[in-house]
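Here is one chain, start to finish.
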Amino acid sequence: MKMKTNKITLTTRILLFVGAILIAVAIYQPIWRIELEAPQYPEGLMMQIYAHKLGGDVEIINGLNHYIGMATLHTENFFEFKILPYIFWGFVGLLALAGIIGNKKFFYASFILLVVFGIVSMIDFWRWEYDYGHNLDPNAAIQVPGQSYQPPLIGYKVLLNFGAYSVPDIGGLMIVGAGLLMSIGMVIETNLIQRLKKRKKNKIVPTALFMVFILSSCGTKGPEPIALHKDNCEFCKMTIADGRFGAEIITNKRRVYKFDDISCLIKYQKENPNTVFSAWYVHDYTASNQLIDATMAFYVQSENLRSPMRGDVAAFADKSKAEIVAVENQTQILDWGRITAEF
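Its structure:
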């Protein structure tokens, strides 16, 4: 009969030590950043949040905030900057001590504390954003009734003519990495994989894997349905009305741009060479208002198709359907590379 041990494995100890190093380095790196983009600032503005201070274009942002009635941002106004470095160093010591002692209960307690700290931190950050975005000076030079300026907790949001993008910076990613390493340790120490294998698929219950999901839930954004007769084309500014020729592009910052014609998408991309795009979608010509992966689609170009901005390109998810249209129009099927070279 095997005796149960209260000691964690050598692998988990190593993960804890690496996690402690990551948090220690994160103390001196920006944890979060908020980027602002607008026509008058082509290179964008960025505010970085460290454990002990604010960095980046804070003074310029404060000048803009003054016009819309938001309070100016100063490091000394945040009590969090006074205590965060000590909290982070506390976690560095806690993880290192958990690795040295090797006690399972101590390890479990350390993991729970880190998860709780992460949740509380995000709640506090949201509260801070809400306060600054809603408590506005009634005598501000620019006032828009009903308008608030709360940045997104994470992701992208439009605020007047500014696009605000909020994401973890390198320090924040290091802290998330430390949490993921501890999550892996939890899986190892609880024999979670072996337990899950013994359960029937419809009876699997979320345990430590749920924590892994929470800590690593920044996935790739999928296509956003185009609202016909409501959304406008980012390139030609026309209202998108035809569900056969629409298109959509997503940047690496998860910002979505919509177009009424595939040619508009391609021209927009070529006019913005400094923007990093991560996904391309087009309407399936044979399916009403349904987006498909542009890089995997089959294309037919013919003047007879008469798309809204006369790019005259139709996309198909099914090659056989594309072949029928190509034969009818006495042309050939093209791929994404050929289409992007046409405009």
